[in-house]
Structures are given as C-alpha cells and as structure tokens.
Amino acid sequence: MKDRITYFDKNYNLRRFVYCTPFTLDGRAHGDLHEQFKRKTILTTSHAFPYIKTRINIIHKEEIISTPIEVAIEDMQKKTQELAFATHQDPADAKMLQMVLQGSVGTTVNQGPLEVAQVFLSEIPIDPKLYRHHNKLRLCFKDFTKRCEDALRKNKSLIGPDQKEYQRELERNYHRLKEALQPLINRKIPQLYKPVLQVNSHRDSFSRLSLRKLDI
C-alpha cells in the first residue's frame, strides 16, 4: 500500500513548480476545442522551499506543449478523478457530489464531455501519430461513464424524498449522454492492433523455424 501524502509532504522540500498557459496558434488564449493548446512550464529552483530567503534562483526551465487532443485527455481524466473523489468522500458530501454530477452529465454544459467526444472521436485521425491519443481518449470516456454511474448510485443513496425528481433528471441526462457516446467510444482503430498481430506472427514463424532446425 502506498504511503499517504501528508500536508507536510505537499508543502516542504519543494524545488519543482508547474504552471499552465492556454493558447491557440493564432495568438488567442482560448479557442474552440480543436484549436486549444496548453503550455506546461516546469521551473526548478536552486534551493528547496521553504527557505531563509523568499526569492530563490531558477536553475532550470522546461516547457511541454500539449496538443488539443492531449488537453482533452487531461480534462477528461480530471473530471473522472473529481467524480471518483466525490463518490468515495468520507464523510459523504451530497452537495459536492451533485455539483460534480451536474457538471458531468448536465445537458447545458458548454464544451462538456459530449462535445469533446464529438470533436475528437467522430472520425479516426488521418495522422497515425494521433492514433494512440485517440485510443487513450476513448478509454478515458469509458472510465468516465463508469464513474458517472457510480456517482449516480451514490447520490441516490444520499438524497431525501424531495430530491427524487432531481435524481431522475440526472439519470435521464446520463442515459442520453451514454447513448450518444456509445458509437464514439466503441470505435477502435484497427491499425493499432495490426503491428501486434504481425509481430506475434513473425515470432511464431521464427519459433517454428528454430524448432525445425533443432529437429534436423
């Protein structure tokens, strides 16, 4: 079992700091989903915080650019983690759970999960370099829908009689979302599986050839 990260661990002996900057290729900070990039900047200081001085020199700077589909993957992973946390929170917090659920399955959410899926999963990408990102996002959505289902079940156990209609509305929205996502997240990219089959085929052929040589 992993050791629990304490408040002390999170706030002491810190030398690496990260901040993210959204941008688009035409210079705007924010754009549509298909054009939204993100720059992740990682700074390393010469000494660890806390320190006797409030300012410490930066000795290394690293930048990582995330493409729009990578940004979408991170966003879906974050939504899924929020659902998991709200579902398993102890003691349970019904208001928090409902807020996260509404943001996940609500029909009026702009640039919500369904729009993300429609933008990035409607078609198999032309560039083979994006195949694995496409597949990773597809798997993220599978995990996301499972977490939504768990959260709805948890919320049902927490609400009183006055919120039964609200629960039914959440469930209706979830089923509409799941139905719309189904054809998008069930589409696999055949090219991702061909190399594995070919390697196994060559390996089997090599093994049979080796056995024949040994028999001789």
UniProtKB/TrEMBL annotation:
Q: Which InterPro entries match?
A: DOCK, DOCK_C_lobe_C, DOCKER_dom, DOCKER_Lobe_B, DOCKER_Lobe_C
**Which molecular-function annotation in GO is an example for this chain?**
guanyl-nucleotide exchange factor activity
Q: Which Gene3D superfamilies does the entry link to?
A: 1.20.58.740
Q: Which domain of life is it from?
A: Eukaryota
- Domain DOCKER as annotated: residue spans: 1-190
Name the GO terms of the biological process aspect. axonogenesis; small GTPase-mediated signal transduction
Query: What Pfam families has UniProt attached to this entry?
Result: DHR-2_Lobe_B, DHR-2_Lobe_C
Q: Which family does it belong to?
A: Belongs to the DOCK family.
Name recorded for this polypeptide: DOCKER domain-containing protein
